[in-house]
């Protein structure tokens, strides 16, 4: 089965370039990052003078972490600083919060990254099913692929290499220290402008609100990837609803049916 077609009105058969999100779309190295971030934020907010209950804070934090997923990590930390100050606390610099989060996340994923590099772990087990196959299929059809992530670029480059994916992309982009000089929207605009494309010549694959919304804003085709990351099979219903709300034209559980998906997108009806 191809997946769930939300918008039957897209113009297929014109795609020359494809943009992929990384975490949750291709890579599962960082599976579980949301819980690391949310737990850290709740812990810090519980230390403020005028905080809500832990249960209430978890609901509040989950909502804004979800809303900002797909943007650079720093934006979630800027929001955290604002939430600390709202409750009478003295906020740290958002960059300090980001590094605290990255330290905690690294404790969770270090074994995965090092295991991949040492050959102890199977790369396929830490990727969305069909990830390599769809990249190869697009390459065989002369579609130029790019990678854009809200994760810091140095980590995206390292983890893409660890998974053996780097060679599939004409460009790999991630968050920069000067966060205002990078966004997925900037990458999309650059691809369109440098290659003189119209929107229907670009397809984006992503599991976050940001890349889907940014692609649709320029008339591109957006494929939502609603993988259940923990199980590596089936649909994450929360992701599915969120991707549809963002404007996804299609929603797939993974790339297991990559042949049908590529045929549908690249061949004229």
Question: What brief labels describe this structure?
Answer:
single chain; 269 residues; alpha/beta; Rossmann fold; 2 domains; 7-stranded mixed β-sheet; 7 strands; globular
Euclidean distance between termini CA atoms = 17 Å
What CATH architecture of the largest domain would you give?
3-Layer(aba) Sandwich
- By DSSP, the count of extended strands is 7
* Number of structural domains: 2
The main pleated sheet reads as: 7 strands, mixed
Describe this protein's structure.
The protein is of the alpha/beta class and 269 residues long. It has two domains: 4-28 and 127-266, HAD superfamily/HAD-like (Rossmann fold, 3-Layer(aba) Sandwich), CATH 3.40.50; 33-118, no CATH class. The protein contains ten helices and seven strands. The chain has a seven-stranded mixed β-sheet, with helices on both faces. Strand 3, helix 6 (153-162) and strand 4 form a beta-alpha-beta unit. Helix 1 runs antiparallel to helix 4. The protein is globular, with a radius of gyration of 19 Å.
